[in-house]
């Protein structure tokens, strides 16, 4: 990868083509998980690739390229959301998470798993502010470590840990409330 980056820094278009093929899906998935809007994620992917092309000289070769890529993607996404009057709402569409293999159980179990994933994404959308949501997306949907997230977002690792903690508290609280109401409704039938 280092050789490809060096080629890109010299203006080699084939190198950028390789970067695009390698990372466009990752960029799109990250943008989509933050915005839940496929069209906006397409635009963000294009803007991120253009930003990489025009600013590759700012990349510090001693740092992992993926961290820089995530930082650029997150910043471009943040700017795109600001352009939309700060609205952070997510459009209800199919998630890229569902492209991943799901255990080949019965069709009912597969549907139930998809519905559960969709519900989790909806709860993340409804309950978590942007700064907490982005940490959850990077950790649980992109697989970054807490240290990598701190590097991408340019915040202390303690901030990352606190945001993860806050997200889990909010999500657990919401799940407990729903269980309570479901249990109460079942006993009153």
Automatic annotation (TrEMBL):
This is Sigma-70 family RNA polymerase sigma factor. Belongs to the sigma-70 factor family. ECF subfamily. InterPro entries: RNA_pol_sigma-70-like, RNA_pol_sigma-70_dom, RNA_pol_sigma70_r2, RNA_pol_sigma70_r4_t2, RNA_pol_sigma_r2, RNA_pol_sigma_r3/r4-like, WH-like_DNA-bd_sf. It comes from the Bacteria. Residues 121-171 form the RNA polymerase sigma factor 70 region 4 type domain. Keywords: Sigma factor, Transcription, Transcription regulation. Transmembrane segments: none annotated. Residues 19-85 form the RNA polymerase sigma-70 region domain.
């Amino acid at each position: 990868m280092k050789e490809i980056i060096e080629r890109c820094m010299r203006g080699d278009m084939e190198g950028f083509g390789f970067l695009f093929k390698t990372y466009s899906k990752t960029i799109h998935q990250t943008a989509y998980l933050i915005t839940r809007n496929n069209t906006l994620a397409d635009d963000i992917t294009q803007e991120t690739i253009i930003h990489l092309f025009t600013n590759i000289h700012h990349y510090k070769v001693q740092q992992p390229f993926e961290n820089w890529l995530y930082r650029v993607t997150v910043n471009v996404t943040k700017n795109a959301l600001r352009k939309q009057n700060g609205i952070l709402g997510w459009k209800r569409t199919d998630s890229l998470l569902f492209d991943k293999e799901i255990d080949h159980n019965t069709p009912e179990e597969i549907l139930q798993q998809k519905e559960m994933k969709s519900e989790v994404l909806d709860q993340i959308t409804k309950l978590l502010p942007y700064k907490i949501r982005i940490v959850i997306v990077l950790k649980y949907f992109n697989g970054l470590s807490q240290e990598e997230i701190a590097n991408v977002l340019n915040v202390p690792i303690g901030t990352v840990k606190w945001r993860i903690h806050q997200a889990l508290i909010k999500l657990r609280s919401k799940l407990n409330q729903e269980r309570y109401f479901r249990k109460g409704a079942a006993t009153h039938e």
